[in-house]
Write a structure and sequence with these properties.
Two copies of one chain form a homodimer. Chain A is an alpha/beta fold and 443 residues long. Chain A has one domain: Amidase signature (AS) domain (Amidase signature (AS) enzymes), CATH 3.90.1300. The first copy, chain A, is built from 16 helices and eleven strands. The first copy, chain A, has an eleven-stranded mixed beta sheet, sandwiched between helices. In chain A, helix 10 crosses helix 15. Chain A is globular, with a radius of gyration of 20 Å. Chain A starts with 10 loop residues before the first helix and ends with a helix.
Chain lengths: 443, 443
């Protein structure tokens, strides 16, 4: 591997180079910081970045190696953390002036796991306001007049701009998949409950997930493998054996995968060019890909999602609304006001639909390895919007693992993601199927 | 042990006698059936009882032994099951004409566990309407003009009347503790989530618990030990090591236990004679017992409980209300109508108070092994009420294990229970502390 441009290395390659002594963590972090100095004035992906502190962490990682201490799978690898995820050594301000200067007393579970794996927590990436819809200051690295998407705007943009090989975001609707699509990087939202959300700003217990951004499938696998597990502080996590993501991804599928092309009820909202691009992708995938029609009742899922999300947001952001609603955007204030009016009955009715929605996918997954669907309407929209999240909604509601891969481009030359969705708790297999789809698409 | 009156044996003694061949399961069940024929016309504890089917089960248990198959810890022991708990071989009608003739396709988790432990499912015991407040047909075995309490009326009365050594009930407010107190038996509601509720009529996921009735602490320990464990169908259960209830109860406490006498905000609702009786109990317990004042904020807990219970009932009994509210009692219809008006915000606010309420008991349990408190206002009320559940509310809301022991009597000569409450997930220790309290009280 070429270590002359460390900031362009994948996380996997960077970790190997650091472990082998071909590159120091300090050199790697220096290269990333140099790249940030170069493009950050345009991209504005970082909410908080203390170069000296990042370098201190890197030197400490190098010292580990020099003194023969065991090295983690991400040893020395710099990671960006969405600014709704708690860090003890950096502020976590949740994209709202109401939380300005907030200094958490402890690391979020994912941050602790990343540190335990040897990662350098480079800084905090820009989030939209409380991880909701209003645009942030971040710009799309491919075109500064376009949105990077939201709400994990800074994480997606930082990875896309070569500032950092890995970044952590979240998703409650489409906040990982959509920015990954717009920024042309890999974005992965695992099965609900696979990664602990302890220490992450709570919007919706039923929907919130931690998401990952990287520039390769291997890096997604390497990173997610460090982050899964039971956490008594997140009641939706479950004890389970460690999932061998890297090993599974490295293996061949036992049979040629079959993927279901699914036009959800929001298909017609996709741009004509997006619909065409997917038509071509289906042809490329050939006999392994078949269109699959979901039952019509699925159309209600977008309403259930909004009911659950807004009802739970109203509770989690109750204090912010009560004490500081004048400091909230009109968009968020409106969401919270709507959420406060929802009855417990309507909320529970929506929640109770989810298990049946999930069961409804059993037949599909008895015949297919994964679903392929658009990740967004089209390429990145102008800066005044973070884009339509509707292409993430159904899969988020069902808690299914979803991956966005930068396999296509729109007529404007900007990236257009392909979304692959897997069966719940079959996350590693989804990545393996994705590798196969990637190879077909790029062949 | 004297096996000449098998219906009077404890479950533990009966299981030993059956295992040793001193008594057949058939003889045991016959004795219970004879006792039922004798007192059932007055007590009316059973909703469904098929003598032939009970005897068939008993003979099958005897055949197990004759053929050398392994015997369960409850081998041959007859158990009564509250009629909101599913059984494949008997109807489960939930105390409402809306579910008349309902035949579940599978056993509830607890029924399956009891069968696996060798128990004979004798029949279904009377429940109040959907396990809520209106009185049932069951009468108090100690005085047929008095209520057995509710909602687990038949289970408590059947055990009290010597019809069956063990019965299963449930508790969402005080539906195990209150009937145990009125009927003069042991009643145990374990930590929320310790016993799976799969196959039990759902009223409130956050509050519902399976409860147990027996005539001795040993029987409570023996039975609950068979029923704990993780069930993927009940999301509030947790994987954990099997809890050695019987062994813990048989051991001595390492130190003399200390119990906190707690006058909750509902203390003044207790009868004067109940308050006096507890004053005497505190004196009897001597230096090991100390009054402990809860913070005043606890007074709100009864409102939080009602909000959670009625909001969740409205969702779980949505269909019954929509399609058959004219077949519901005015009491239940009123509860559901109120529940349907609660906002998701008020509901979640109440839910969010619970973790802090639980944390608030940390200091108490750092200094005390258990809480002692009344189980009810006084002895059993007349038949037109199932009694005030307020003495169970706080502990149910906090998900703490609660035990009612028949240690006292009221001025009318009827039983008056003593409630002991333990730290969450410290259920076995609570029973061991209860044994010590029992010995002091009866000394």
């Amino acid at each position: 591997m070429d270590v002359s441009r460390p900031e362009l290395l994948s996380a996997s390659d960077a970790a190997h180079a650091v472990a082998a002594g071909a590159l120091s963590a300090e050199q790697l972090v220096q290269a990333c910081l140099a790249r940030i100095r170069e493009v950050e004035p345009t991209v504005q992906a970082w909410q908080y970045l203390d170069e000296a502190h990042a370098l201190t962490q890197a030197r400490s990682r190098d010292l580990d190696r020099a003194e023969g201490r065991p090295l983690g799978p991400l040893h020395g690898v710099p990671v960006g953390i969405k600014d709704i995820i708690d860090t003890t050594d950096m502020p976590t301000e949740d994209g709202t002036v109401l939380h300005a200067g907030r200094r958490p007393a402890r690391d979020a579970a994912v941050v602790a796991q990343l540190r335990a794996a040897g990662a350098v927590i480079l800084g905090k990436t820009v989030t939209t306001e409380c991880a909701t819809y209003p645009p942030s200051k971040t710009r799309n690295p491919h075109d500064a007049t376009r949105s990077p998407g939201g709400s994990s705007a800074g994480s997606a943009a930082a990875v896309a701009a070569g500032m950092v090989p890995l970044a952590i975001g979240t998703q409650t609707n489409a906040s990982t998949i959509r920015p990954a699509s717009f920024c042309g990087v890999y974005g992965f939202k695992p099965t609900h409950g696979l990664i602990s959300r302890h220490g992450v700003l709570k919007l919706s217990r039923s929907l919130d997930c931690v998401g990952l951004f990287a520039r390769s499938l291997d890096d997604i696998a390497l990173a997610v493998e460090q982050l899964t597990g039971f956490d008594e502080n997140d009641l939706d996590t479950r004890p389970r054996a460690r999932i061998p993501f890297v090993e599974t991804l490295a293996g061949e599928p036992p049979l040629t995968p079959r993927v279901a092309f699914v036009k959800t009820p929001v298909w017609e909202r996709a741009d004509a060019s997006t619909r065409e691009a997917f038509g071509e992708l289906v042809v490329t995938l050939g006999r392994s890909c078949e269109e699959y029609a979901l039952p019509e009742s699925v159309a209600e899922a977008w309403d259930w999602h909004r009911t659950i999300m807004e009802a739970e947001m109203a509770a989690h952001l109750d204090l912010e609304y009560e004490k500081g609603r004048d400091k909230l955007s009109e968009s968020l204030r409106g969401q919270l006001a709507r959420g406060r009016e929802i009855t417990a009955l309507a909320y529970q009715r929506a929640l109770n639909r989810v298990p049946r929605l999930i069961d409804g996918f059993d037949e599909l997954f008895a015949n297919f390895d994964a679903i392929v669907a658009p990740a967004a309407r089209g390429t990145a929209p102008p800066l005044d919007s973070t884009g339509d999240p509707a292409f993430g909604t159904l899969w988020t509601l069902a808690g299914m693992p979803a991956l966005c891969m930068p396999l296509m481009h729109g007529p404007d030359g900007l990236p257009l993601g392909v979304q692959l969705v897997g069966r719940r708790n079959d996350d590693a297999r989804l990545l393996r199927t994705a590798r196969w789809v990637q190879m077909q698409a790029l062949a």
